[in-house]
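Lab meeting, action items carried over

1. Structure of the two-component assembly. Owner: GW. Status: complete.
Input record:
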Amino acid sequence: MIPQLAAAVPDARAADREYSIDAGGVQIALHEWGDQGAPVLVLAHGGFDFARTFDTFAPRFVDAGWRVVAWDHRGHGDSAHTELYSWDADLRDASAVFDHVAGRSPVPVVGHSKGGALMLNLADAEPFRFRQLVNIDGIPSKRPIPDIAEHERTKMLAGEITGWLDHRARTAGSLRKPGTIDELAERRGRMNPRLSTDWLRYLVTVGAYESGDGWRWKLDPSMRFGGFGPWRPEWALMKLAGLGVPFYGMLVEIEEAMGWGTDPDEVRPYVPEGGRLDVIDGAGHFAHIERPDDIAGRIIEFLGTPA
Amino acid sequence: MSGAPTLIEHNRVRLALHTLRSADVAGGPDLLLLHGLGESSPVEVPAFAAAWPGPIHALDFTGHGASTRPTGGGYTAEILMADADAAVRHLTTTSTGATTIVGRGLGGYIGLLVGGARAEQVRGVVIADGPGLSGGPSVPTSQPVVRVEPVDSNPDPYALVELGRDLRPRDYATAFVRLAIEGSGLDDPVTVTARFRPRWLQAVVEQPGVAEAGSIAEALARYHG
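Predicted assembly:
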């Protein structure tokens, strides 16, 4: 931690406890804020993020009486870089985290972006782990199909696949690009354009490491934005409709690069009975970082008294 | 099998590429064999490939045969497509022409994917019966989170679990047929010999550009040129 950068984000609080668990041979890093004896609240981060992106969000819940637990997905933050990454593997790692912090008892869970979608899936596969589920801009809906000819669509698919294959062909032994704190913050700022420079510079100090030639993000360099595969985003809605625990979903008004462009009208018919879906006016994909008091306040009210 | 396999890198995995017949013996185009789920490469030229006029190679997928067994699973068909791509790229650097692929079971599905993705480097894909041909459902279902005990030899149990239930929507599979048609220059870039036809494969067979053959040898004869 660099004191002057931490001082620029006064409400950020480092985790009180950091350790790793062995999840089937993969070292998964856990970060905990708050009293160890308090009731557990699990936070799940988004893709290309890491648990310490909750450094301003998690303390709000600690102050409300929770023991907050977050983990770095494999390949992210302080968790191990593995040979393979997949949705199934992330679910398996998450399941191991829940086993470690809550056994097989139900706990409230808050997931952002990919972490929200992952938790929707886990709540379908292992519903006994969930007491309540909050999803912050992590509910995908059907992507609008561009009005183009079939052969153009085929060409776009070909481009996505060859781009991915070419990337995989290059990544053996590769490292992330080094830079100064300001350079890494500027790079991340392209994907997080609504977040402050002070926050982005702070993130570098907790999400990157320094070596002889500069700072590098800890994220596994074999990971890449975008992608393709058999999964259709709207299939997540089937998991949403079947939830058996209290649900609070938040979508955001302002689209940005890391967001999913979800249409609230596509989601509403699938909100489980008694569930709630809000659209957060004037907020982007990282609403919980832009407006931690507002978003945490809504969730604390939804969760009720820690128990 | 002639000698030790060539080890090729795919990210952090070392893939074993076996030479069953070398270019010294036959100077025609390359043939690449992709095994089924839970199998490994054959140790000698299979009877169906005896008449092939060029070198014959066989790839052990990640977690199979002599290839790396990863820690903690995470298998997808797309990762295995990238395995096959690494082999095709390697063969492209050592020979002059495109590679023809025969895949058994899961290897047939992977052959389809790489045949579409790298249509200019692949000269025909034969999809044959074998383990892992069906894959999982064509739409999502409630599937359990599975953890398995580590083992000290291949095949990796995670490969068996994860690749035995991967989603294979019909329109996803047929998209790769379209890619193969547009990029390969062949009239029929895919030939199916499999008699068992799960839904994805039935959809593939119904596409233009997909032929059917009674045997693998017959199918391969279509791609000799």
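2. GW to write a short summary for the group page. Key points so far: The CA atoms of residues 3 and 202 of chain A lie 10 Å apart. Chain A is about 35% helix and 20% strand.
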